């Protein structure tokens, strides 16, 4: 799967929004900006050609390149198989405040976010993602982006960056915010859940 470069846009659904295919199936367009076709109640509609069925719900999964976020994506895919849901993988990025007046000139957080998406998709799907998976790379605070995209979703799955022992029982700031404010049930995966 080839993703756009960082210079294309700052808020995008990857791959680009598409149109109806010759066989009548709908491919990758959306009225809610997520790349998944939805009705007025934000119910996802994605056609799964391999299983020959319409996936009428959506599971959102937060991705950040960590082991726990890869576990979250794998869990979301497992849950999607049983519920015939589409999966929407989300990587959020933002430009950090300058530290001591030092500005980053050769580094792009959006390019890093696109690379995280590429690597995670390759690892989770062993190459090519299925048609019912929609990768989204969006600028903004990770918790805020995931909470917004949880509207109308069946579930939000996120990783937690616990470090084992007592610290491993604690949630990270993004997973805590999502658990408190998401518009759907939230499942938090730890590194050892992989």
TrEMBL record:
Transmembrane segments: none annotated. Residues 57-189 form the UspA domain. Residues 1-29 are annotated as: Disordered. It holds the Pfam family Usp. Belongs to the universal stress protein A family. This is UspA domain-containing protein. It comes from Subtercola boreus.
